[in-house]
Amino acid sequence: MNNLLKLFQSNISVINVGLPSFADDLKKQGVPVVTLDWRPPAGGNTKLLGLLDKVKRHQAKLGY
After folding, report:
1. What is the pLDDT of residues 24-36, one digit of tens each?
2. Residue (of 16, 64, 17) closest to 40 by Cα position
3. pLDDT of residue 1
4. Is the four-CA dihedral 54, 60, 61, 64 of positive or negative sign?
5. Contact 22/16 with Cβ under 8 angstroms?
């Protein structure tokens, strides 16, 4: 329980992976925030993702 108490008494820093508005709201409250501009591989296109996966497996076989 002591570690939990320490957690809630400490300052927090946030890595925001998602909507920039989440980071904006935290910044308004004085919370240090770093925003990571992450997007799903291949834009979420499952067909393209499958093709990229094939390339990755082929590269692994070749030692890349």
Report:
1. 999 999 999 999 9
2. 17
3. 65
4. positive
5. yes
Distances (CA, A) of 36 to 7, 10, 60: 24, 23, 28
Which residues pair with residue 33 across a beta bridge?
Answer: 14
Strand partners of residue 42: none
Mean pLDDT over all residues of the chain? 91
- Residue 57, CA distances (Å) to 13, 50, 51, 52, 60 in order: 37, 11, 10, 9, 5
User: What type of residue sits at position 54?
Assistant: K
Burial per residue of 3-16, b for 16 or more beta-carbon CB atoms within 10 angstroms, e otherwise: eeeeeeeeeeeeeb
Single pTM value for the model: 0.53
In which residue ranges of the chain is pLDDT below 70? 1
